[in-house]
Amino acid sequence: MHAWPAPSLPNLPGQGLPLRLYDTAAAGVRPTSPGSTARMYVCGITPYDATHLGHAATYVAFDLVARAWLDAGHEVHYVQNVTDVDDPLLERAERDGVDWRELAEREIALFREDMAALAVLPPRELVGAVEAIPGIVEAVTALRDKGATYDVDRDTYFAVHSDPRFGSVGHLDEAEMLRLFGERGGDPDRPGKKHPLDCLLWQAPRAGEPSWESTIGPGRPGWHIECTAIALEHLGNGIDVQGGGSDLTFPHHEMSASEAHVLTGEAPFARHYVHAGMVALDGEKMSKSRGNLVFVSALRRAGRDPNAIRLALLAHHYRSDWEWADDDLAAGEQRLVRWRDAVSRPAGPSADAVLDGVRRHLADDLDAPGALQVVDRWAEETLARGGDQADAPGLVTRTVDALLGIRL
Ligand code: 5CA
Ligand code: ZN
Q: Could you give the 3-state DSSP secondary structure of residue 20?
């Protein structure tokens, strides 16, 4: 499916620093070391409701990864999926009496608009689960041929321990894995499974649900194999970053990694597993199933500047869990006004340190709050005392546009 229009990126003098990122699997910050093309897969939306600020925060975080790599001279091959057939989507369509395809199409269209408004760089490929079914069937067949699958009734399961490295993404103990698997779409208690953590690869048709004919029988894909198959098809194994919110660490990224290890015979699937913190509202993780949401599209309709929304998100470090409050947006709006005022002055103090400082903070595990403060200091100085560098306002404008996605 098509993505959304790419914002244009201004050129900056010099080059960004090598990007260091926290890797969940290593439990520490490590340098990324992409080749000339950096390869990143970020888990996309399940389109049964509009984009909320939690999604937006996660996609803005990975947008910073892409911007930092581009600035450091790499090409970026970025792939994202859309889980356009899965239980939550089918349940919501049923509840609302709408066709699941229409619901998905409507929400994907809104997601594209939200991402474009927030100046998020589009993935090179945005791939729906439905359009990926032939590749998913191939992947399930290959796992079966390797002896890593078994059937329960007519459903096909992945035997997670066929990957000796199973567990190497999240390093969780078994009790914790079982708890999270049960909470996040898994079926640890289903009778007939060989191990409670084994996950569904291909689900036989259920009454009233969509299914597709295939060489492994009629059915629809399980969740984790969707991302494994799409990532391997478009990016190959050993990608630079596998990304998503921290709620995907287990089981989703653990399962997809193990499936990829068995499919390719090589590990690791990703050199960095990168996870954004959870955004909450009223003390609870913002989630479509809980319904405690602030939608990007609603803020846009209310006339809020997407640059202020983006600044509100960037003011929190991507790895921290935080709670959205109206103050966040007010602070983003005030900052935007100050920055716009400062860059509209005919001259300011030198902006070389702004470019260096923003680059340094971003390269240091995406320290966006630190980067914002660097720009704040320049803006304060410009507004308080002015300066004699006529090219400084232009360089600051280009710096925050190219590296932070803020258009002044
Ligand atoms: N389609 C799957 C991934 S393959 C999925 O998790 N979809 S989602 O719509 O539920 O979430 C989309 C992305 O937003 C995921 O990366 C998820 O981790 C992230 N996300 C969801 N809720 C929040 C939240 N409250 N705060 C931050 N990120 C979130
Ligand atoms: Zn995914």
A: strand
